[in-house]
Amino acid sequence: MAMKKKLAMSGIAGAMGLSLIAGGTWAAFNDVEAATNSFQAGTLKMDLSEVDGPYTFNITDLKPGDHMTRKIQFDNTGSLAIKDVLMTIEDVQFEDYVPEKGEPGFNDAWAEEAETDVLDYLDQFTVDLIRVGLEGNDSNYPTNVLLEASLKDLYLASDSLYGQPGNSTDVSAARQAILSAAPDNSRLVDDRLRVSTIANEGWEGIPLDPSDEDQVKITVSFNDDVEDTYEDGTYKQNKFQGDSADITVSFEARQWDGQEYDGDGYIDENERTDTNR
């Protein structure tokens, strides 16, 4: 991808050769200076920082009905304005717990179905993404990015990017589910969720001028299903006891489109995300 550049153009200095006639011979004085053009590529860099606690969802001993919320801040630490930030589930490392003789649950009805896979497990969780505004205040420019989407669907919707498990029917259904859960379809870009500011008072993305961070609030809930039970009255969700998953969520910061520049010196516009420029 071609990046927008900071362009530093040096002055072009040249000297004409001066010829003198002396004693019927030609003597040439020649001064040659090279013309130097300097091009320096800008940097596109974003850092994640915690807002209310650590940037992690590594919670143990979850039970149905539990939920957790994290606020993640995006800081632009490069030299170029960031157009947008795209989020996706990049990878899930799943561990299935099946009780063996002598372990808790071995004699329970659910133990016979305890062998589950990553998609079964992720389907037990619901995700809400709410961008909380430029200053991180819930009442300041609140925007719902995704409402009550299955973690399984969010995972499968990235299939074309990361080759997640699941057949084409699963992936197609997951993408449709994500579309239905996203109030604003402009939030979807190449099967990923755009979680940065969009068209807020003429600005979007994460500019350097004016300097301003962006935040997104993410809530993950463990669904509580008390309707589906075995004959002995125990919940079928019991089969997920002891299961665990390490989920890698990636955020990609993208540059603005390139532009024609005719002047000399620094391109101030590359620091901005003014939609009217």
UniProtKB/TrEMBL annotation:
Signal sequence residues: 1-27
Pfam families reported in the protein's UniProt record: Peptidase_M73
Assigned keywords, A-Z: Signal
Region described as Disordered: spans on this chain: 258-277
Keyword Signal appears in the UniProt entry: yes
Acidic residues biased stretches: 259-268
Designated name of the protein: Spore coat-associated protein N
Originating species: Alkalibacillus flavidus
